[in-house]
Design brief:
With about 160 residues, the chain is mostly beta strands. The protein has helices at about 10-20, 90-95; strands at about 25-30, 35, 45-55, 60-70, 80-85, 100-105, 110-120, 125-130, 135, 150-155. Strands 1, 2, 3, 4, 5, 6, 7, 8, 9 and 10 form a ten-stranded antiparallel sheet that branches. The longest helix is centred in the N-terminal third of the chain and has 12 residues, at about 10-20. It is elongated. The two termini are about 20 Å apart.
Amino acid sequence: MIFNAGDIFTAAAINGALNDIVDPGWVTYTPAWTATSGNPAIGNGTISGRYRRVASPVGDMVEAEVILTMGGSTTYGTGAWRISLPVTAHAAAVTMRTVGSATALDQGTSYRSAASYLVDSTHMAMVTAVAAGEWSAAVPQTWVSTDQATLRLRYQAA
């Protein structure tokens, strides 16, 4: 909520503005899924994202979540995967290699935990110690239809 000159400040308006700061709503976005060599293609799979901006003492923070579900015609590209951010990250957040979480669901087999992190001001990547590397067509598993990747990251906006 934005106040303009001449606005009348009511308790409801002030509470609404405070709620926007304390608990901002989620905004959807469609992340771009790329790779360092040959790009993957979602095919009949799905990729969705959402984010919200949260005020904090260190500046505007962004909380982002992405769900990538593989389809039968999904291709996985070559090289390490990258997921686009909804809002450009602050240079300090990139320098610190801000870290979030990632989970790979190998349908019918297991869940694999990993970390998501900023690789630059516009992309995040996923890395796991189990398979010793960044996620790709064969890391942390050989991806197939109905497998799912869930990513979460909180970082300072530019």
